[in-house]
Amino acid sequence: MNLKTNAMYSVPKLEDYSPDGLERARNEFLSALDTDVLNATTEEEWKAARDRWMSRKSGLLSQINDTWLKSSPPEHRRNTGQLVNELKEIVTGQFSQTPDAILGRTKNQALAAERLDISLPGIQRAIGVKHPVLRVMDEIVAVFKAMGYSVGEGPEVETDYYNFESLNFPPNHPARDTQDTLFIAGQERKPARERLLLRTHTSPVQIRTMEKQAPPLRIVIPGKVHRNDPLDATHSPLFHQVEGLAVDTNITFCDLKGTLDHAMKALFGSSVKTRFYPSFFPFTEPSADMQVSCIFCGGKGCRTCKFSGWIELLGCGMVDPNVFEFVKDNGYDSSKISGFAFGMGVERIALLKYGVEGIQLFYEGDVRFLEQFS
Ligand code: DAH
Questions:
Q1: Which long-range contacts (CB under 8 A, 24 or more apart) does 293-297 make?
Q2: Which of 140, 281, 284, 348 to mutate to test the pocket of ligand 1 (most atoms within 8 A of CB)?
């Protein structure tokens, strides 16, 4: 039998189902396949070869199924089945892809078809901008850094001691009611001062800093704070503050006024004026609310300043000697040193600076809002 001429091959009837016989049939079948594959040089010939081997009805694959397997004696069925399966896999694999040579492609053309053009511009991703709240917070910090202040931070999950007690809010004092917050559950067995809560202000970092650093001290503390405040146009249960603390010998209320007046002019422009109104905070004595002349009407009176010409912006005061008592072992002797402190809401300043209508715009992540700050 001349195996080189594919036309000669047709599936023979199998008489010998012994392993040797099957092996012989296998080899003849495969060399006929090789011949056909090699002889196909055009796409038509390739397709014709594929039909001849794989056509459902009369392809050579179907034929070995019918001629070899179906008529195999039961005791050889297993081996014959395995052989037919093996051949089926080989033939299917052989014809699964038309070779590049037949498609008229050289190896280089084939590679070129797969080439990735890395000089294409790619998908452009919009560059983000600093969030307006962060931006204002950084700006405030920069104003104080320029005056020689250093920057400190503290934990957002704080103990009752740092958030309240050491700031002269004694247990059960009504001043605590103004700063309700979330407490961490399951701490009933701990002493009250060790219980954890979400800090309501950045003031606890005053004590934390004084514990670590002896006077003199000038520090600003930016950070996130939490309160049980329902969301409205100017309040949010989560917001940001920048705290300040200066301690040295002979620090007076004058220093406080001069420092804050300078800071407000740096933030809002040199024509802005400040004034100080008596107020109350447990940790400062005396305490004050600082107001700025309305940046929208210049002090003439408008809706934003409720026609008063002034806008309340922050709390401040002279550090209460009771606060220094908690850190007296670190050099804070209130007969020798004094200090002032202040705390401001960042969102409040950002709302004014950019004329934003509602605080919630800062948290919604609406790109149309945020991209205005690019
Ligand atoms: N911690 C106060 C608050 O959140 C703000 C404040 C007022 C901070 C007076 C101070 C201060 O340092 O001296 O309401």
A1: 295/268, 295/269, 295/352, 295/353, 296/355
A2: 281
Q: What is the pLDDT of residue 203?
A: 98
How confident is the model over 138-145, as a mean pLDDT? 98
pLDDT band at 1 (very low <50, low <70, confident <90, very high): very low
Model confidence pTM above 0.90: no
For residue 345 and ligand 1, the question of a CB distance below 6 A is answered with no
pLDDT confidence of residue 243: 98
Q: Give the number of the atom of ligand 1 that is nearest the alpha carbon of residue 178.
A: 14
Whether 201 maps to a domain, the answer reads: yes
Residue type, 352: L
Q: Is the pLDDT of residue 28 over 70?
A: yes
341 lines ligand 1 (CB under 6 A): yes
Do the strands 338-345 and 238-248 form a parallel or antiparallel pair, or are they unpaired? antiparallel
Q: Which of 37-51, 52-66, 93-107, 347-361 is predicted with the least confidence, judged by mean pLDDT?
A: 93-107
| 289 and 360 co-located in one domain | yes
Cβ–ligand 1 contact at 204 (below 6 Å) = no
Query: Amino acid identity, residue 285?
Result: E
Q: 281: CA distance to ligand 1 center in Å?
A: 7
- Angle between helices 43-54 and 77-95 in degrees, nearest 10: 160
- Tell me: do 281 and 168 sit in the same domain: yes
Q: Is the CB of 343 under 6 A from ligand 1?
A: yes
Which atom of ligand 1 lies closest to the CA of 245? Answer: 12
Tell me the residue type at 53: W
CATH number at residue 345: 3.30.930.10
Tell me the backbone φ, ψ of residue 238, rounded to 5 degrees: -130, 130
Atom of ligand 1 nearest to the CA of 244: 12
What is the span of the domain harbouring residue 76?
Answer: 19-114
CA-proximal residue: ligand 1, atom 6 (nearest): 343
pLDDT of residue 304: 87
Residue 4 has pLDDT above 80, yes or no: no
Query: Distance of alpha carbon 200 from its chain centroid, rounded?
Result: 25
Tens digits of residue pLDDT in 87-128: 999 999 999 888 877 777 777 777 888 888 889 888 888 888
Which amino acid makes up residue 12?
P
